[in-house]
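Review form for a predicted model. The reviewer records the input and the model, then writes brief findings.
Reviewer: anonymous (R2)
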Amino acid sequence: MQQLPAHSVYLVQESKETADAVAYAFLQNTGEPVQYPYKYPNIADDDVRIRILYTGLCHSDCLHSRGLWDPNIKYPSCPGHEVVGLVEKVGTGVTKFKVGDKVGCNPQRWMCQTCDLCKKGDNQLCSKGSVQSLYQERQDVISIYVTNSSNLNATCCNIM
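Model under review:
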């Protein structure tokens, strides 16, 4: 089996006996999702792991998992990108969130938090941002890893 780097958000398949969790994943652009046992990746000092309580599965999940949006998609692809969950683990450098916080995650945008639009609270219109879905490398059906928590407020918001 492939070894994880010291810090990675890639899902690497494990045996069911040694896995931390089992996701449903597409392994290629055809066929149905299959059970995909894996170990939780390590988190860096500024990362957060969120246990997913609810996630939507929409048409964009189907298009993405089938490789219709990006023919260079990296598999496995674990659909579901509109997430509500609980902060499960935080890196040692994270100060804005704590274990147990309820959060909702922005499904498709990275925001700079420095442009005029972000400063006004319109971060969905960020002029420097980019569309980045929380798919394959960053999410599974059990937990999601938010890298670089300095951008976490733009990515997730407390919903308690």
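Findings: The helical segments are 59-65, 116-119, 152-155.
Further findings: Residues 21-43+56-82+105-144 form one domain.
Recommendation: see findings above.
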